[in-house]
Amino acid sequence: MMRIVADENIPLIDEFFGDHGEVIRLPGRSMTRDQLLDADVLLVRSVTRVDATLLAGTRVKFVGTATIGVDHVDVDWLHEQGIGFASAPGSNAESVVDYVLSGLLLMSEQDGEALTGRTVGIVGAGNVGSRLQARLEALDIPCLICDPPRADAEEREDFVDLDTLIERTDVLCLHTPLVRDGAHPTHHLLDERRIAALRSGQILISAGRGECVDTGALCRRLEAHRDLRVILDVWEGEPTIDEALYRLVDIATPHVAGYSVDGKMAGTDMIHQAMSRHFGLPVRKRLGQLKPESWLRRITLTGWAPPLEALMLCARACYDIRRDAMLLERYRRHYGMAEGFDRMRREYPLRREFSTLRVSLKHNAGELRDIIVSAGFSLRLAGKQG
């Protein structure tokens, strides 16, 4: 039987991995080499730095990260050591898109502007960015895309550079991995010059990696001119984040944009399948067997419901970004920022994705039907079964 060490924040670890050996749960941010000396498998999230310092001299033969990003893992070193590796690309992408839409709906309501009246710039056209673009454009929200590596690789002429994106958009969404070297580094991609170029009233949403924004420069901009609308889910120096910046942004959350139970469980399922393939083991568990039923299964709307009001109602029934902002403040007051940041992630309440909510509508609710489906909710027409 194998010895499997896992970040305590990964759901369904016992259900997926318990048949393969002994499962030991540990805080991901404080894992040490001594705790892994006799481990065969290591399962992490983004808070654990996986490299030679952590694993040299251990018997670990497989590492799985239940996350989209892999910048916390020295993949080249693992390959050199013959250690199997898998991530979970796309697992929580829909959850992050839900987060962004919730933020945009909140900004729209606060500003008294139509959701469709803004052009959105998306930096990074990967799993999250491409899905965000698809949902926004389905809602008739125009998008501009910046992704230099993909533009080069695919010879895409429809992408624009970041400076053009900043100049021509009302909302800027960052969804890039953290890349420190090479032709297209993303560390401090939004640097002091570009932060200064952001226009008064522009909305910045960062839900990729905290180090992609020079948060010191952002703090200075907001201290001098509090004229930007800012939603930050990711931060430099997590969990010891800049509390001066925390107090200046409109919405602050502790790296939980992708924390739907659906996304997290999908990540566990993906690394379980990868580990099983690596060791030649049968895959006996499937996510469909283990995923809990949504406690809110259906909302019924009449055909005369105002489309934007109905969309806000459905979105907040699934996920209200304000709840997470208020919850982080409560944790900060009780435990301090660093401990509260991690404790909230560890104790994060159950959250489901938009797609788990079925909206029941009358057949003739054409505009309302279109906006509900475009936003990512499931649809049930009146008179239909299911």
From TrEMBL:
It is an enzyme of class 1 (oxidoreductase). Residues 292-363 form the Erythronate-4-phosphate dehydrogenase dimerisation domain. GO terms for molecular function: 4-phosphoerythronate dehydrogenase activity; NAD binding; protein dimerization activity. CDD domains: ErythrP_dh. Its EC number is 1.1.1.290. SUPFAM superfamilies: Formate/glycerate dehydrogenase catalytic domain-like, NAD(P)-binding Rossmann-fold domains. One of its GO terms (cellular component) is cytosol. GO terms for biological process: 'de novo' pyridoxal 5'-phosphate biosynthetic process; pyridoxine biosynthetic process. Substrate binds at residues 46, 67, 259. It is found in: Cytoplasm. The active site is at 209, 238, 255 (proton donor). Pathway: Cofactor biosynthesis; pyridoxine 5'-phosphate biosynthesis; pyridoxine 5'-phosphate from D-erythrose 4-phosphate: step 2/5. Homodimer. Belongs to the D-isomer specific 2-hydroxyacid dehydrogenase family. PdxB subfamily. HAMAP family: PdxB (MF_01825). This is Erythronate-4-phosphate dehydrogenase. It comes from Kushneria sinocarnis.
